[in-house]
Write a structure and sequence with these properties.
This protein is an alpha+beta fold and 183 residues long. It is 21% helix and 48% strand. Strands 1, 2, 3, 4, 5, 6, 7, 8, 9 and 10 form a ten-stranded antiparallel β-sheet that branches. A hairpin with a 5-residue loop joins strand 9 and strand 10. Helix 3 crosses helix 4. It is globular and about 45 Å long.
């Protein structure tokens, strides 16, 4: 019985994730709305998402897609983990980028992407970044608050040296992210 339930769950996920979403309007209608009262802390990689077709990712998220596509040896996978659509001029999407080159090197990012209501890219912000290679690592987590301010925590390891810090950002009424200083 457990195998049947697990098989059904796997088949359901594959069907759901492979559904052909070909326009921004379909994407924004399909993505789950994120509702919160206090704050959201992004310190892990989301596992549930709508997997995006490569053509839609190229079309809608072109600035991010072409940056990720230029990394050597990477096969980039894209997905949307949710949306925040309460702003009058723009929507916020949680865009997942996953690059795995081998067992020792990976680059996972959760972008907060602002898009105007017609589906045009405005700006993006790395809420969660986990980059690991043989010689260095880079980890970022962030807290998003209801006033759309963000506190970002960063830890970098290069060779034997480690650096850590935090910064504050705010999201403007036009959908652009602005650095507000050290936290």
């Amino acid at each position: 019985m457990k195998k049947n339930v697990l098989l059904w769950m796997v088949m359901h996920f594959v069907f759901y994730s492979k559904a052909q979403i070909v326009t921004y309007a379909e994407l924004i209608c399909t993505a789950n709305e994120i509702v919160w009262n206090d704050s959201l802390h992004f310190k892990t990689y989301p596992t549930e998402m709508i997997v995006l077709d490569t053509n839609l990712a190229k079309q809608v998220f072109a600035p991010l897609y072409h940056t990720a596509d230029n990394r050597k040896g990477c096969k980039v996978k894209w997905g949307v983990a949710g949306k925040i659509s309460k702003q009058p001029l723009f929507d916020l999407l949680l865009l997942v980028e996953k690059n795995d080159t081998d067992n020792s090197t990976w680059h996972h990012v959760l972008h907060l992407v602002s898009m105007d209501k017609h589906g045009h890219y405005i700006a993006s912000f790395g809420l969660y970044i986990n980059h690991q290679s043989r010689y260095n690592s880079y980890f970022t987590s962030a807290c998003l608050y209801p006033d759309l301010s963000i506190i970002q925590y960063t830890k970098v390891k290069a060779g034997q040296q480690e650096f850590a810090g935090s910064n504050k950002f705010s999201l403007q009424s036009d959908g652009k992210f602005v650095h507000s200083g050290k936290n």
